[in-house]
Design brief:
Number of domains: 1
Order of helices and strands: EEHEEHEEEHH
Radius of gyration: 17 Å
Number of strands: 7
Largest sheet: 4 strands, antiparallel
Number of helices: 4
Strand order of the largest sheet: 1-5-6-7
Structural class: alpha+beta
Distance between the termini: 32 Å
Helix content: 25-40%
Length: about 140
């Protein structure tokens, strides 16, 4: 049996130690709400404040399973609640513990924190499929959603 995983590890600077603490309070509250939910949104990743004095950055990384959509929802919620601004993004890897066709890949996602919206994403598996089919790789809109 093949075991599939999505892995990621990234930092999000909240701008201040106070905002980092608020972010952790929000994460704890959302996780508690997830325990009661039929479809949890924030359980596929972990969040910690970077371990250094005066830290304002959050370390967001895969937990038992990597939930990219959960990270995006959490970061957009943080942007709204903490009034974050600027651009932020992260990348991920899709892996399989057994050699399988189409079981490996990854991607990246970009969020405009100021506008509180996703700018786009790209999947390496989709990029490769377009390239092999003779598609136009310069047209990133065809690859990103």
């Amino acid at each position: 049996m093949a075991n599939y995983y999505t892995q990621f590890s990234c930092l999000l600077d909240t701008g201040s130690p106070e905002k980092a603490a608020q972010a952790m309070e929000l994460f704890t509250r959302l996780r508690a709400e997830d325990e009661e939910a039929d479809e949890p949104k924030f359980s596929g990743f972990d969040v910690l404040i970077v371990d250094e004095p005066g830290a304002s950055a959050l370390w967001i990384h895969d937990g038992d399973y990597g939930d990219i959509d959960g990270v995006i929802a959490f970061v957009l919620r943080l942007a709204e609640d903490l009034d974050l601004s600027g651009m932020w993004g992260f990348d991920w890897a899709n892996i399989c513990l057994s050699p399988r066709i189409d079981a490996f890949g990854g991607g990246a996602h970009v969020i405009d924190l100021t506008a509180r919206k996703s700018v786009g994403w790209i999947s390496t598996q989709e990029w490769l499929a377009v390239a092999l089919a003779g598609g136009d790789l310069d047209d990133l809109e065809a690859l990103a959603q």
